[in-house]
Specification:
Elements: H1 2-9, H2 16-34, H3 41-49, H4 57-67, H5 88-95, H6 109-132, H7 143-153, H8 156-166, H9 180-196, H10 198-206, H11 215-220, H12 229-240, H13 246-257, H14 259-263, H15 269-277, H16 285-298, H17 301-307, H18 312-319, H19 322-335, H20 356-360, H21 376-379
Helix pairs in contact: 4-12, 5-6, 6-7, 6-8, 7-8, 9-10, 9-13, 9-18, 13-16
């Protein structure tokens, strides 16, 4: 008994990691508790980008809609919206390959099948509604993967609103009639790589591997290449809270982290292609995000686009990206607010009216050329 009493009376020593998590929990709760209808958006963006991200699904359920500037009360019921659009067949094919990778804990095989069927029906309805209510958008293979992660982390109602937003902001450059702007994003990864590690860049280029090998990272925010929903959600924290091109910086930090392994690989196309495209598996994505933040601060998009060694077409597309310009203007106006001022958000994305068609309209000037299809090798793979 005395020995047991001593063990019970022992004080648990909090590790630095535990203390860091507790501090962040308090910080997030403080921002959310400050106001019921308005939030300090800059503070939430900083929390989403800093180490650990938003920590849990319960916080993401509340904060992702804020980062996307979406309110549940403004989102219509998906059953009230049109489902008819030009890419219905492809959407159906892709959705029917979804929800295999993420485990459904505690479900019997029979109930797992039923649940997967239900999730697919919800996913297809959301994707179809977003596309049907804005005929200017072009579906790309991988859009449904982003939607699936948003849906699993929040719910089908919020996923509709968030995806409607993303289709007109962060993902808009990928939803035009061509692949060119997406490939310019991929090219920016190689430009950054050349600045950060010229030897590694030269080794990859000598093998004949091209920037488009990173296309699935860019289009799906790594949801096509990672199997852990928590890790994918952490990447989404960062992407939702940052510049539309931030995914290129995460991709750059990922390749840099595997630099020694890639340099040790024979300078052969197939060997280097495999070494580069498989680097995401098993990598600590938290470290990649923090490294990406540093690279972003050193080479922000404006500097990258103006000074980088792009092809003339890629530089033109990135320079004319209305999505990037709109976000830059939004952040500039946000920074004009004092730290103690709560930003309610009316600049980057207009608040969503009840009509989803209106919700999808993005007030931007200039043309955006983006991706309407993806490479055939990717289309053949099982999605999710």
């Amino acid at each position: 008994m005395p020995g047991k009493r001593r063990r019970l009376n022992q004080v648990h020593k909090i590790s630095p990691a535990e203390d860091e998590i507790r501090t962040k929990l308090r910080d997030i709760q403080a921002v959310l508790a400050r106001h019921e209808k308005s939030y300090n958006l800059a503070a939430l963006q900083e929390l989403a980008l800093s180490k650990g991200g938003l920590l849990s699904s319960s916080f993401r359920l509340r904060i992702w809609p804020i980062l996307a500037n979406v309110r549940r009360t403004d989102i219509p019921n998906v059953s009230e919206l049109s489902q008819i659009h030009k890419d219905e067949v492809q959407v159906s094919m892709d959705v029917n390959r979804s929800f295999f990778r993420f485990p459904q804990m505690g479900l019997s095989p029979e109930n797992e099948i039923k649940n997967r069927t239900r999730l697919r029906e919800q996913l297809q309805a959301i994707v179809n509604a977003v596309l049907a209510n804005n005929p200017d958008l072009h579906y790309y293979q991988g859009f449904h993967e982003v939607c699936a992660v948003i849906m699993l982390a929040t719910d089908s109602k919020l996923a509709l609103g968030i995806m409607a937003r993303l289709s007109t902001c962060h993902l808009r450059d990928f939803m035009g009639p061509s692949l060119h702007t997406c490939l310019a994003y991929c090219e920016s990864i190689f430009v950054l790589l050349g600045w950060m590690n010229r030897r590694l860049y030269d080794h990859i280029c000598r093998s004949g591997v091209q920037p488009q090998c990173t296309i699935s990272w860019v289009l799906t925010w790594f949801s096509h290449d990672l199997d852990d929903l928590n890790v994918i959600s952490r990447v989404f924290d960062a992407c939702l809270a940052s510049h539309p091109m931030f995914i290129a910086y995460i991709s750059t930090s990922l390749i840099l982290s595997k630099g020694p392994d890639i340099l040790a690989t024979e300078c052969d196309f197939s060997a280097i292609h495999k070494a580069v495209t498989k680097v995401a598996a098993g990598t600590n994505m938290e470290d990649m995000i923090q490294d990406a933040v540093k690279i972003f601060a050193r080479y922000p998009p404006a500097h990258l686009i103006s000074k980088g060694q792009f092809t003339p077409e890629s530089r033109r597309l990135l320079s004319n990206s209305a999505t990037c310009k709109k976000y830059t203007t939004f952040i500039s106006k946000l920074k004009q607010h004092k730290e103690d001022v709560v930003f309610q958000g009316e600049e980057f994305n207009k608040r969503a009216p009840l009509n989803l068609g209106e919700m999808l309209k993005f007030a931007m000037t200039g043309s955006v050329t983006a991706v309407g299809f993806t490479l055939s090798w990717w289309a053949a793979q099982a999605i999710l």
